[in-house]
Amino acid sequence: MTRFDALVVGAGPAGSTAARELAAAGARVLIVDRAEFPRYKACGGGIPLRTERLLPFPIDSVVEDSVSLLEVANQGRDRFVRDASTPFAHMVMRERFDALLLEQARKAGAQFRPGTTVRALHRDGGVRIEADGFEAEAPLLVCADGAHSPVGKMAGLGEGFAECAAWEVELCVAASRLERYRARALIELGYFPWGYAWLFPKRDVLSIGLVLPPGQAGALKQGTKVFIDRLGLSGFEAGVSRGHKIRFRRGNERVADGNVLLAGDAAGLADEFTQEGIYYAIESGRMAARNVLRAAAGNGDLAPYQRDIDDQIMPELRAARLIGFTFYGMLRRAARPWMFASAHTPYLWNAFFAVQRGESTYAREAARVPLLPAIASRMLKD
Ligand SMILES: Cc1cc2nc3c(=O)[nH]c(=O)nc-3n(C[C@H](O)[C@H](O)[C@H](O)COP(=O)(O)OP(=O)(O)OC[C@H]3O[C@@H](n4cnc5c(N)ncnc54)[C@H](O)[C@@H]3O)c2cc1C
Hints:
By secondary structure, the protein is α/β, with parallel strands linked by helices. The chain has three domains: 2-57 and 93-159 and 249-315, FAD/NAD(P)-binding domain, CATH 3.50.50.60; 60-91 and 162-245, D-Amino Acid Oxidase, Chain A, domain 2, CATH 3.30.9.10; 323-380, no CATH class. It has eleven helices and 20 strands. The chain has helices spanning 13-24, 94-107, 150-154, 175-180, 220-230, 278-297, 303-333, 335-343, 346-357, 362-367, 372-380, and strands spanning 2-3, 6-9, 29-32, 46-48, 63-67, 69-74, 77-83, 89-92, 111-113, 120-122, 127-131, 134-138, 140-143, 162-172, 184-189, 196-201, 206-212, 237-248, 256-257, 260-262. The longest helix is centred in the last third of the chain and has 31 residues, at 303-333. It is globular, with a radius of gyration of 21 Å. Flavin-adenine dinucleotide (FAD) binds at residues 9-15, 32-35, 41-46, 116-118, 144-146, 150-151, 166-168, 209, 244, 246, 264-266, 270, 276-279, 281.
């Protein structure tokens, strides 16, 4: 059996970031993933610009487009476009983006073992993972195995999160249609009680998808088709189309225990306004690495990681949730006036663009409206 200083399960943004930072600090780290890489991941691939600041290497080589225009409609009506002047988000294909993050982890010295599905976890002193015909052990484990988090469950962590589901289609369209959406993200509202469809431009395809609340996963595929029809894109061939769940940590659910911690989607770190998770996956991957190094140099306990998540990520997720509930609540109560107000209140979208660029935070923007928690909880009851 091979021994390491730390094991990482899952080579998505959370796992690769943790592995890279651990290896860069001199740790002997193994990262395993059940998939062969590059691998597809159901995802819009919209990355807020602020993500770049978390990474010590350029991502230009995998950026397919950068968007500065946001087009918003309500079931095809009340359409408006906000121009942010300069990009607020990058668009990537996850197989290429994740492969870049993994390559950087390997460059830093992390060992990678693809095609390795962890089927059992033993925690007797250290941590031992078992896959088919393979075992590895280490004192500490970063569990970055995504929203279903099978290994997190084996550790008894990550229970009790809220969740929703999303569906994604890569549509191969004519060049003229690609041109129509260059530098432009389209968001379609009007789903009950909340949710949105998106169209994100990529170099050769349009990424189109739909996110809906829990209990509506069965409506995702058909809802995406209706959206594609409404856009006049139904004649084009759909490449991959796939769904996945997204989880949300709202309270104090445990994300660390002794020698195991959860990062990224495994820890429910996606926001409830935009349902984005890549930024938080990378941020928590960095925190995971710092805590593993601290624990390795100290008493071997990863409990302080949970405090870091509570202090540094949760205020942002809580604020995003309040903003999301208020936004969708207003839309439910008075769709047309709210769309009109949204279109004619540049402040709202400028604040959103500032958050996306890392010039502000959801927490700072939410604090500007002291009554927001009361308004949001009222909206929840509608
Ligand atoms: C349809 C859809 C659209 C989305 N769009 C966006 C978006 O536009 N922007 C955004 O920021 N976020 C988006 N998200 C959320 C985003 O995809 C996630 O937040 C992000 O992938 C989290 O990264 P991660 O590293 O935590 O997990 P993942 O990227 O899911 O990686 C987990 C890895 O763990 C591996 N794994 C799982 N189980 C095992 C096991 N037993 N053994 C070994 N390996 C295992 C998997 O193979 C996988 O590679 C979207 C989600 C969905 C479902």
